[in-house]
Automatic annotation (TrEMBL):
PANTHER family: IMMUNITY PROTEIN SDPI (PTHR37810), MEMBRANE PROTEIN (PTHR37810:SF9). Keywords: Membrane, Signal, Transmembrane, Transmembrane helix. Pfam families: DUF1648, DUF5808. The chain crosses the membrane at residues 79-102, 140-163, 183-211, 232-258, 270-289, 352-371. This is DUF1648 domain-containing protein. It comes from the Bacteria. Residues 149-194 form the DUF1648 domain.
Length: 372
């Protein structure tokens, strides 16, 4: 119980810290999802919006983490509490962050409109064509750990399979008691291995998508932002492959317990399955904080002024609902860089984006039904 509570608290504190840091990770020309000319990034209204955002997110996140921890402890060993409290706490965090973000978004958007920040400002877009002719190479060496862990788990399972009992434990409650069993078959026994392969394929494929992702370059500093974009996708791909290795390590712990090579307890479950995933997420978060959105925090030498222009990025706020939902029927792109946050979001206006949305909803519903 104590271990599970600690993992839950650590995850909520991590979410709080990441939400607090998010304004500093965004591209300078996109405060709270609002497109502005680069020379307006230092406007007092933006600095004030950042201060208010952080002053609300931090205590709200800490209060949510404290309430979730207290609720779990007061509920004792109730399986219902362990199943309900964590998702409710995450939902509360998301609602808090969204409400505070949206208020800041409206403040900046109103200031932009009132003072005409884009009046008489030349607008354009920047594209690095070299990313298509000379793309970043796939980091195969970083993919090896996840593959080795999967192969090792499969070999261990093949050796252990003849000695397995007639039934296998497939689920434990929050207190470490077995509450689900299934007949021993190749499919049930090797479920952890199949999940490892699926996770590895998904994250390895995501790394490919990251390396070939759409650019979001700064038209005022095209050369510098092109170099930053390369650094961003390079480290994002590596981070995804490291996450795959840690998730597969977690599934190895599940396999060892299922195959009877290790005992089972709530503390051990948190250590063998929860801790590796948390460490993998920390690696991804570290990379996100280090690089910033689209590499905006990476240092690039532009001291000689070469590559600077007098053109601001095109004001395309009309395609972004609240600065987070992208809806553009004239853009065939399925994934586009987020405006607030790290990574990519879906173009809900394109047919490909709508198809991906439906597939994700079906996958989520299927997972919920299978877990229940």
């Amino acid at each position: 119980m104590t271990a599970l509570v600690l993992v839950q608290a650590a995850a909520l504190l991590l979410l709080t810290g990441l939400a607090w840091a998010m304004p500093g990770l965004a591209q300078p020309s996109l405060p709270f999802g609002v497109r502005i000319p680069g020379d307006r990034a230092g406007e007092p209204v933006i600095a004030a919006a950042v201060r208010r955002y952080r002053a609300r997110v931090l205590p709200g996140g800490l209060a949510t983490a404290a309430a979730a921890t207290a609720g779990t402890l007061l509920a004792g060993r109730s399986a219902l509490a362990l199943a309900v409290v964590p998702p409710c706490a995450v939902a509360a965090m998301v609602a808090l962050c969204w409400s505070v973000y949206y208020r800041a978004h409206r403040t900046v958007a109103a200031a932009k409109a009132e003072h005409g920040w884009f009046d008489r400002v030349p607008q354009g877009i920047a594209v690095d064509t070299a990313l298509r002719t000379d793309p970043e190479r796939y980091p195969w060496a970083w993919a090896l750990p996840a593959a080795v862990i999967t192969a090792g788990t499969a070999v261990l399972g093949a050796v252990r399979y003849p000695a397995l009992p007639a039934t296998l434990v497939t689920h434990w409650d929050g207190n470490g008691r077995a509450d689900g069993r299934a007949a021993t078959t190749v499919l049930t026994a090797f479920t952890p291995v199949l999940l490892q392969a699926a996770v590895g394929a998904l994250l390895a494929g995501s790394a490919v998508v990251a390396l070939r992702s759409r650019q979001s370059l700064d038209a005022e500093h095209p050369r510098a932002s092109a170099a930053q974009h390369r650094g961003f996708v390079r480290w994002t791909a590596r981070g995804l492959l490291v996450l795959a290795a840690f998730v597969n390590l977690s599934l190895l712990g599940t396999a060892l317990t299922m195959w009877g090579l290790l005992g089972h307890s709530a503390a051990q479950d948190a250590a063998l399955t929860g801790l590796p995933v948390l460490l993998g997420v920390l690696v991804v978060v570290f990379i996100a904080v280090r690089t910033g959105a689209q590499g905006s925090r990476l240092t690039v030498d532009e001291s000689d002024g070469a590559g600077r222009t007098a053109v601001a990025n095109r004001d395309d706020d009309r395609y972004w609902k609240a600065g987070v939902l992208y809806v553009n029927r004239d853009d065939p792109s399925v994934f586009v860089p987020k405006r607030f946050g790290i990574g990519w979001t879906i173009n809900f206006g394109s047919r490909g984006g709508q198809l991906v949305t439906v597939l994700l909803l079906v996958a989520l519903l299927t997972a919920v039904l299978l877990l229940n």
